[in-house]
Amino acid sequence: MTINLTDPVGEVSVETAQRDGHMTALAAAEHLISTSPVIPAELETRCRPWATGQLVIILHFFDAPDDVRAFAEHFDLAVGERVVDDSQVFEVEAEGVVSGVQVRAWCRVRPAESVAVSAVAA
User: Fold this and answer.
1) Pick from 24, 104, 44, 96: which is nearest to 68 by CA?
2) Which domain holds residue 54?
3) How many structural domains is the chain composed of?
4) pTM across the whole model
């Protein structure tokens, strides 16, 4: 079998591009899970039909801010905290790019838990 590199490439459909995007994100997610020191409760990939080149992996760590921080440190992601719902809840999140895919790891905790965890980590 030979491949003629001068033949025009067929048009790629949105569905094919979206499928390929999800497969790329899933491959990156496999790398994250197989090498991470902590395991999330949930993992989601996003590849929207209108933005097939903007892949996202979202990892939710249920009530585990230390796990978010450990994940962030392992993959060299930026960590931040923000107040949600009129200071009733803090969200701890880590964001960055791993294996060419945008990654967001997060969890929500009550303010007292976030302060206690931050004090222990310091």
Assistant:
1) 104
2) 14-121
3) 1
4) 0.78
